[in-house]
Amino acid sequence: MPRGKYTNHKGRNRKFTSPEELEEQRKQEELKQKWRKEHGPSSSEESEDDKSGSGDSDDSDSEDDQPAKAKGVSGLIEVENPNRVVKKNKKLSNLDNIGEGEKPQLSRREREEIERQRAAAAYQKAHAEGKTDQARADLARLAIIRQQREEAAKRREAEKKAKDESTKKK
């Protein structure tokens, strides 16, 4: 015997039910069902039958005809689940019209993403036209850089001329 509260089932012998035993059990179930049909179900046997969950019972058809009896107070109170979505049947003729007329419903995140893309495109367009503050600052910076480069080019030209003249004089 293993020590402790729990036992390990690994490595133990396995017991398989023989076909003869299965056949015997099936025959006993059929005999019980025949007896119940002949003598009529009593309340204790009926609840016992429901608990056992017999797989292939012939009298299950007769149970389906009768409405299920509600247990406790649930039969008195009718509660509608507010979260339950009732599936509405649509007509085929209306399906074509619905697809064309309505825009698809977007989630909040999808709407925000589309709005962000539109805003970015509008900003890029305004920036390219020079209407934004950043574009004006960039253009001013570029003008200053151009002016500095022109002055540097003029200085280089002046130095070059001075060098050429000094070399010619010598």
Automatic annotation (TrEMBL):
Residue span, Casein kinase substrate phosphoprotein PP28 domain: 81-162
Record protein name field: Casein kinase substrate phosphoprotein PP28 domain-containing protein
Bias (Basic and acidic residues): 24-33, 100-112
Basic residues composition bias: residue spans: 1-15
Comp. bias regions, Acidic residues: 56-65
Organism of provenance: Parnassius mnemosyne (clouded apollo)
Signal peptide positions on this chain: none
Stretches for region Disordered: 1-112, 149-170
PANTHER family: 28 KDA HEAT- AND ACID-STABLE PHOSPHOPROTEIN PDGF-ASSOCIATED PROTEIN
InterPro entries, alphabetized: Casein_kinase_sb_PP28 (IPR019380), HAP28 (IPR039876)
